UniProtKB/TrEMBL annotation:
InterPro entries on file: CRAL-TRIO_dom, CRAL-TRIO_dom_sf, CRAL/TRIO_N_dom, CRAL/TRIO_N_dom_sf, GOLD_dom, PATL, PATL1-6_C_GOLD
Subcellular location: Cytoplasm; Membrane
Region (Disordered): 1-78
GOLD domain location: 374-484
Record keywords: Cell cycle, Cell division, Cytoplasm, Lipid-binding, Membrane, Transport
GO molecular function: lipid binding
The protein's name: CRAL-TRIO domain-containing protein
Gene Ontology process terms (BP): cell division
Amino acid sequence: MADDKPTSTSPEPAEQGTLEVPPPSSPVAEKETPLSPPLILTSKESIFSPPSPPVQEKETTFSPPPPPSSTTVVSPEKPITNIPESMISFKEESNRIKDLSDLERTSLTEFKQLVQEAITNKEFYFSSNSEEPNSEIKSNGSNHEEILIWGIPLLKDERTDVILLKFLRARDFKVKDSFIMLKNTFLWRKAFSIDDLVDEDLGDDLEKVVFMHGYDQEGHPVCYNVYGEFQDKELYQKTFSDEEKRTRFLKWRIQFLERSIRKLDFRPGGVNTIFQVSDLKNSPGPGKRELRLATKQALQLLQDNYPEFVAKQVFINVPWWYMAFYSMMSPFMTQRTKSKFVFASPARTAETLFKYVGPEHVPIQYGGLSVDYCDCNPEFTIDDPAAVVTVKPTTKQTVEIIVNEKCMIVWELRVVGWEVSYSAEYVPNNENNYTINIQKPKKMAATDEPVLSHRFKINELGKLLISIDNPTSKKKMLLYRFKVDPLSE
């Protein structure tokens, strides 16, 4: 290190290729890693609540989402936006320099100086005797070498600030500890051959266990972790039965994460974190030793080498036994970590997801409308917004769409869990006061198709009425969207 650098921020030089261990830090990093397996929950952070009591309500009318130019709406109602306080306590920090505090800017400057010195001194090599440089150290055609992480060169542009801020936040802006973490991450990436792993073909056996699907309301990509898939005994044995298989699972997990991270935007103000959803329905219990071993190993690697990549961690279909684990672990976690966690019982899974992810982005199996780009419904995609309306117990509610031109109108709707009656009619603007029945009242059972689609040709201006009659003692969520195609003259 240069003699004029402050000794309070510069670590002592270590032998190249030696993993350095920083002083013990808070357990926050352990629970803020991406794709973390389900280990803990707490009743303190729970959003469980009893169903609403039966209430007799008058028939009410609601409006659809923002309509095309050929329609107008009546009595607009806002989608669900009231988020419990415990669910909005974490606010993702800005990565723009102007938004940092003086202390944070100073720490970032000192951190960048240490990184520059490390590059000059070739401290990011795996060992001083290595004839082959780190796979993420590239020659740029000059005497200087380019150091990359997640495909991004360090100290070349403003994306470096975003990366270094992740390590700083993981270590509470302690520069020395952050530098040790970064250096150890580079050495681990070389030892694990990350660049080669990214392009390796590891098969598609686990594509239903972890997958990306859609975006949340702030633009974060959403990653689903479906642990119930491991109830398949053949898949479980194929994944965890011996150390070799567990190692392969770990490699697949890291590969999936690496590929996902490389699609993020690391510019200040860009989206550089992931929205995590962990589905615990039919999740193997704590008695599965092999899964426990693989989980522990994965958590250790993720917490050490992938800091601050989780925007929010939502657990859905939470079983009772999971709460006990979280209750035991909660005292050892920081409030920052717990503020990222949200938990929902099976009855509130869809409602909870819709607070963060639009229903057009939520897969059908979780109460949404997204069918993952297949031919099931060519009329709508995730780019077509949907509205969410709460249908109170023992209430009939109507969506009214006023049509201002001759057209073909197409709509789709879903009531999560059904157990309601659905009807639709068209009322033309004329003096005869007649209506056209499009769908007579039809009782919908929970086992019926989750999403209904209808189209209707409109030759007379008027209004479309879509009605949901909820005879149950539980509130229901109606999802719907529509579009119009003008008729040619």
